[in-house]
């Protein structure tokens, strides 16, 4: 933890809860700059499906860590943490308020609490894992992880080669499970004092927002975006395995498909993911704002946030 005041505001919450809108409102009201903590928005050309802020929105206030990687070079939580730390320092040096926004909670926790110590990467092990995938498929590599670290395996999709390989690599080079190391770390001692803020929605209101957002993706050309990404060779990247992109990719690769069915499948997968996001939030102290703050942040809320930014006790 650094200093006596809050180091940054963290906008958290499930998909389609209004994180980006709130971050923009607060940045405009508090002389802030937005730091992205979404694990798909960091990649260039993954725009519509990730809900990336538009160029017009980005022009209103400075945005950081958007479009900083090609998706063929996946970003790890440790790499995000290092980039975000540097960006935080730069924003503070300009006398502005850092507002970290995103639904990738591992990244948010990595920034707030740091990461568990783990052995370094081994090119030899990674090459061997690639050979397993080439000969037996990604399911075989995932099955090997299930044998040695079922807890970590349960959190990873078999298609996520990078994370599956890394978890196996940790075990094979250290003899310890990644889930063990993370459990010992515990994410209990914060390195930064962050004020977590979310937007509270009644269940029916949230469901309606989620349905509108998913429908809007297709109205704004999501299928065309995925088709273009496939043609450019991004079909097997980690970003393409994220919810929404994966479903559209699979539909395009296995025609015929119906838009209504595809939308419903994405909604179903997103609801499951949103429940996991809410589970994480239950373990954190979060300032929950009313939905009307997405339109215009009220003065009492701004006064409260300014007090938190200026004083450790809030």
Notable features of this structure?
314 residues; alpha/beta; Rossmann fold; Histone, subunit A; 2 domains; six-stranded parallel β-sheet; 54% helix
Count of the separate structural domains: 2
Number of helices: 14
Strand order of the largest sheet: 3-2-4-1-5-6
Largest sheet geometry: 6 strands, parallel
What share of the residues lie within helices?
40-55%
Q: Averaging pLDDT over every residue, what do you get?
A: 89
Shape: globular
**Low-pLDDT windows of residues:** none
Q: Please write the string of helix (H) and strand (E) elements.
A: EHEHEHEHHHHHHEHHHHEH
Briefly, what CATH class of the largest domain? Alpha Beta
Number of strands: 6
**Overall radius of gyration:** 20 Å
**By CATH's scheme, which homologous superfamily of the largest domain applies?**
P-loop containing nucleotide triphosphate hydrolases
The CATH architecture of the largest domain can be given as 3-Layer(aba) Sandwich
As a percent range, the share of strand residues is 5-15%
In CATH terms, what is the fold-level topology of the largest domain?
A: Rossmann fold
């Amino acid at each position: 933890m650094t200093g006596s005041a809050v180091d940054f505001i963290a906008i958290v919450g499930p998909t389609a809860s209004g994180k980006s809108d709130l971050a923009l409102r607060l940045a405009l009201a508090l002389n802030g700059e937005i730091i992205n903590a979404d694990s798909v928005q960091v990649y260039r050309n993954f725009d519509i499906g990730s809900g990336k802020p538009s160029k017009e929105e980005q022009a209103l206030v400075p945005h950081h860590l958007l479009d900083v990687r090609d998706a063929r070079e996946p970003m790890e939580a440790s790499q995000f943490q290092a980039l975000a730390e540097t960006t935080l320092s730069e924003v503070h040096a300009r006398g502005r308020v850092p507002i970290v926004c995103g639904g990738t909670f591992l990244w948010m926790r990595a920034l707030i609490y740091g990461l568990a110590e783990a052995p370094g990467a081994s090119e030899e092990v990674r090459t061997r894992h690639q050979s397993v995938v080439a000969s037996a498929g990604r399911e075989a590599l995932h099955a090997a992880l299930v044998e040695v670290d079922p807890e970590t395996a349960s959190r990873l999709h078999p298609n996520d080669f990078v994370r599956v390989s890394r978890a196996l690599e940790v075990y094979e080079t250290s003899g310890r499970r990644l889930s063990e190391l993370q459990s010992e770390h515990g994410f209990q001692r914060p390195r930064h004092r962050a004020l977590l803020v979310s937007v509270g929605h009644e269940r029916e209101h949230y469901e309606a927002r989620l349905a509108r957002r998913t429908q809007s993706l297709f109205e704004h050309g999501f299928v065309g975006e995925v088709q273009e990404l496939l043609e450019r060779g991004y079909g097997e990247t980690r970003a393409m395995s994220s919810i929404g992109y994966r479903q559209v990719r699979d539909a395009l690769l296995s025609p015929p498909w119906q838009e209504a069915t595809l939308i419903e499948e994405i909604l179903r997968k997103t609801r499951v993911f949103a429940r996991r996001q809410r589970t994480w939030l239950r373990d954190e102290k979060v300032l929950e704002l009313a939905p009307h703050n997405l339109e215009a942040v009220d003065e009492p809320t701004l006064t409260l946030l300014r007090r938190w930014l200026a004083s450790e006790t809030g």
